[in-house]
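Appendix C: a fully annotated inverse folding record. The material below is reproduced so that readers can follow the format used throughout the book. The structure is listed first as tokens, followed by the designed sequence.
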């Protein structure tokens, strides 16, 4: 398969991902957030930066996945050798948190509200950051489309 076909299929699957329910809702919310009190030109630039932020994160994840696929034997050996040693203490800590012996600090809604307020005041760079953050919120449909695209593009190159 040619590189052009891989790009075309990736673009098509990206469009499918963009109109699936989860990303569509976040995209609408982001456009509303970016366009609040802005001129049409500034809203358009904010939308472009939002899309760029998403694209940058997706490309970084795809690069990590493609690089990681080539390291599967080494990673498998590492997990087989060391993960069982860490799993016991990790399960004890998780169990202690679940029964309330250990309490984790709560960030709370005040922290998130302060971050949202700061993000809204950061202008166009806030739109880029918002796109990057929303790109990390995968729903199962988006993850399946994205991971299938990453795997196919790795096989075609």
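Designed amino acids, in order:
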């Amino acid at each position: 398969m040619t590189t052009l076909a891989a790009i075309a299929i990736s673009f098509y699957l990206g469009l499918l991902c963009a109109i699936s329910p989860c990303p569509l809702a976040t995209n609408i919310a982001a456009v509303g957030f970016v366009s609040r009190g802005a001129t049409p030109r500034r809203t358009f630039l904010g939308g472009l930066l939002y899309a760029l932020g998403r694209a940058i994160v997706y490309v970084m994840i795809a690069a990590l996945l493609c690089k990681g696929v080539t390291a599967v034997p080494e990673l498998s050996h590492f997990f087989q050798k060391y993960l069982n040693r860490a799993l016991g203490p990790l399960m004890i800590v998780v169990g202690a948190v679940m029964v309330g012996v250990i309490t984790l600090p709560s960030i709370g809604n005040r922290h998130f509200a302060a971050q949202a307020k700061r993000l809204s005041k950061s202008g166009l760079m806030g739109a880029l950051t918002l796109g990057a953050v929303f790109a990390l919120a995968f729903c199962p449909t988006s993850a399946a489309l994205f991971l299938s695209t990453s795997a196919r593009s790795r096989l075609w190159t």
